[in-house]
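Worked example 4.2. Below are the chains of a multi-component assembly; read each line carefully before continuing.
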Amino acid sequence: MGNVRTALFNYLFARNQKGDFVLRIEDTDKERSEKQWEDDLLENLKWLGLNWNEGVEKGGPYESYRQSERTDLYEKYLKKLLDEKKAYYCFCTEEELEAQRQEQMSRGEAPRYRGTCRQLTIDQQQKQLKAGTPSVIRFIMEVKPLAFEDLVRGKVQFDTGLIGDTVVAKDLKTPLYNFSVVIDDFEMKITHVIRGEDHIANTPKQILLQEALSFPRPVYIHLPLILAEDRTKLSKRHGDNSVTRFRKEGYLPEAVVNFLALLGWNPGDEREIFSLEELVKEFSVEKIQKAGAVFNVKRLDWINGAYIRKKTPKELAELSKPYLPEGVKTEDVEKVIVLYQARLKKMSEITELADFFFAKELKYDKKMLIWKGAGEQKTREALEQVQKILLEVKEKDWNKEKLQEILMPEAEKVGDRGLLLWPLRVALTGKEASAGPFEVAQALGKTKTLQRIEEARTLIQ
RNA sequence: GGCCCCAUCGUCUAGUGGCCAAGGACACUUGGUUCUCAUCCAAGAGAUCAGGGGUUCAAAUCCCCUUGGGGCCA
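Applying the procedure described above to all two chains together yields the following structure tokens:
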């Protein structure tokens, strides 16, 4: 969810600027493999209709980059830092580090690496390496006040002295996120970094690294986080909120784009529904929100419903296919889908709403047929009356307008329209709630309609 | 614990010193439309703009402090 939203904002920004661009999406997700992460993302972006000129540059969890073809590149820069004495090997053990951290925290200081191994000479380092002592590569953080300009937050300041020398790689072949991201930005000529707010704290490290390697500094835009109900960062802990899931449940891509764009951004006026093209046109960094935004499925549902209502029967039929029994005829799908167009929040709901249409036999409690206050007898009479009338209706007149024209006066005559209409509708659908009786009858056709009324009549006998 | 970020209805938000005793949307409540459900329409409830100090003729809007929430660091 977060990574797709970030990709969307990158897309909107770049398209709005009309410049050439390359998208690089970063994510430090440690749970999934690079391959799966990338496949999911690309698939989702494609589904959403976000197409890039040059294709999306490979991102993926940076921890996995050691596997990639860029290894030599990272090694080159790592060696450069080492040669220039801007980085060094560190042989401190976990225990030593942990003890140091505890001590610092107990004294109310910032927990940071003190630079013990910085003192080591090249010879000493080599000796330890040869001996096979476990080690990491640390980058020397220059101590100075550092500020960068964030397009949505303004000036963000840090005191780099509080950070300590960061680990940039486990070894020459295994770079870590903060390092590889800097190399990638440079190599890919990234000019604008648009990413989640959770990366703000990483930015000074990356800037110092850029400076050490004489790389230009890109423009930073940090997006507000997507939050769960409990106002913490949305994560797997909160259940599956992936775009993949929403796609499977039958949310429409244009609705998801619309919804995501409005999480943390707004057009400044009161419009709510936007196409991708409109979003591109309207997008502006100044209107990006600073505070985190809670992910609200009900709002997504509403937006999705609005898009569903705009579809043609043909489009809807196509969209609902995955949620209907296999082998059903397209014309049948079109018949039933229009009944529920105004009722659907997501396409997957059609399965249950339309099952009566495809079922050979309806199963329901006969009590359901009885309109409030009416008894079994009155209900039976009503069904018989409707049956008699409908039997006379010609095949060519079998449409909802005509059926209503014929049945409505009869229902009026009874006094309480529900007495006639309710049993009819239940007989046809077997449901407490459904589309109206006339349109359902039209969709079912004369034969099936009469057959179901007969079944209901027998049931209540 | 340190640093950083943030703070308007339950939620997403409008608002960049006077037009705001705060507007819209979702959700909620009520009523209307051909039985039900939904759509649609109408109405309603819902925020002393986190709190406190300033600055100003005037502050939701600028400044400071406090509080609260979040993120990163391990």
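Take a moment to check your reading of the output against the notes. Chain A is about 50% helix and 10% strand. The domain at 61-223 of chain A is CATH 3.40.50.620 (Rossmann fold).
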